[in-house]
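sorry for the late reply, my laptop died twice this morning and i had to redo everyting from scratch. anyway the thing you sent over, i finally got around to it. pasting the sequence first so we're on the same page, its 290 residues, then the predicted structure underneath. double check i copied it right bc i was rushing
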Amino acid sequence: MEIINGKKIAKEIKSDLAKEVEQLKRLGVNPALTVILVGNDSASEIYVRSKAKACAEIGISSNILRLSKKIEQKELINLISRINQDAKIHGLLVQLPLPDHLDEDVVVQSVALEKDVDCFCAENVGRMFFGKGEILSCTPAGVVELLRRSGVGIAGKDVVIIGRSRVVGRPLAAMLINLNATVTVCHKQTKNLSEKCAQADILISAAGQAGLVIEEMIKPGAVVIDVGINRTKEGKVVGDVVWSAAERRASLATPVPRGVGPMTIAMLLKNTIIAANIAAKKLNKKQVTK
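ok and here's the structure:
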C-alpha cells in the first residue's frame, strides 16, 4: 500500500499559492483574511492559530478577532457587516462552533458571498453543487485535490462516503458527481454499511468514529481517504479507519494525522486568493469605467 502524504501535497500547493500572492501584490492587491473567534474554545483556538500561521507562510495578511462568548447576535452581525464592506479584507470566516445563544446559520449566512472562504453561504453552496462555484468547501476540495495529485481517476469510479455533514459529506458527494463518479452517501440509518463500503473503488470516511472502518469494509485495491479526526483515551489522534486494515487491503490511503487535515487549510488559502482575485477584477472594472 502507498501512503498519500497530505502534508507534502499541501506544501506543494502552498508553494504555488505563494507565487499567486506575489503576483497579486505586484498589482497592488494584498490578500487578507479575517477570522472571527467567539469565546475561548481551546480546539477552535488551535485551528485559528494554524490558519494564521499558514497565511503568514505564503504572504497572506491575517487578523484574528477574538470576541467575548457573551457577545449578542446583533453585535456580531453588525461586525460582520462592517467587514463585508471593507475592501481591504478579501476573506472572512467565523470559526465554529459558536456559543449556544448564537444562531450559527444566521451568522454564517451574513458573510458576503465574495468573502465566504469557508463556502458556507447558501448561494455559494448552490453554485458548488451545480459545478459553477469558484470558492469551494475546503475539506471536500482538499480530498478531490489529494485524489487528483495522487493520480487517482475519479470518472466512472464507485465512491462511498461515510458521513453526510454539510461540511464534508454532502458537498464532497456533489463535487465527485460533477466529476462523473457514481456516489453513495452512507449515514447512521444506512443498512448493510459493510457491504456497501466493500463495493467502493474509493472509500471516504468522514464519520468521526475511531475504528469504524475495518478490513472487511475495504475492497482489495481500493483507495481509502480518512477524513475523521478522533482522540483516544490515551490522547492519540486517529482517524475513522483501522490503519492496519488499510495497509492490508488498500492500494492508496491517507494517514491521520498528515492526511486530509493539511489540505483543508491549503484550500482555505486558495479560496482567500480566489476572493482576492475577484476583488481585483471588480476594482479594475471600476477604474475602467471612471
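Residues 261-289 form the longest helix (29 residues).
thats about all i looked at so far, will dig more tmrw
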